[in-house]
Amino acid sequence: MFISIGHGLAEIALLIVFALGMSKVLQAQWITAVVGTVGGLVLLLMGIDMMSSVLRGKIGQITLSDQGEQVFAGKISTTSFKRALGAGIVVSVANPTWIIWWLTIGVMYVTQAMKYGWLGLGFFYTGHILADFAWYVFIAFIVATGKRFLTPATYNWIMAGCGLLMVLLALFFLVQGIQAVL
Q1: Looking at the 3D structure of the chain, how many domains does it have?
Q2: Is 79 exposed, middle or buried (0-12, 13-18, 19+ CB in 10 A)?
Q3: 10-62: per-residue pLDDT in tens?
Q4: Which among 64, 84, 70 has a CA at the least distance from the CA of 4?
Q5: What's the rounded Cα separation, in Å, for the pair 93 and 115?
Q6: How much is the pTM?
């Protein structure tokens, strides 16, 4: 939950920057070309690396033991809260798909929301962040209960599938970037 709050803080900061006029700059065709091409190449490399790691048997296996449950039995300290909050911010901002999503789709949503002023942006952010929280609660539930169902072979198939989807997404962004150049 604290990582999700960090993610939400990163997104609200970005929304404010967009709302203050940065979205106009980011809609320039050369920005689309650079973000699409560079982001597409990064995603392509990541996807190929994921798939090849699975094929070579080098993908890290997840640990599905009951030992992790003991971590949550204690008190949540201020330090652990700050670290989780910081991790949410860093993971979000460093994630190329997060950046690409906000520079492409997200900026269009912000532009539409700003037609209704700051209230529209507030409603957009609230709906967006609630969807994020619902998704991450679902993922946490799957991780917490999935140890009964998630075998190493299933995990490898999931990782290979994610790698393939990342390659397909990369190709989409590369095409968008190349089209913007042309």
Answers
A1: 1
A2: exposed
A3: 999 988 888 787 656 656 677 667 767 877 787 788 889 889 988 888 776 55
A4: 84
A5: 26
A6: 0.57
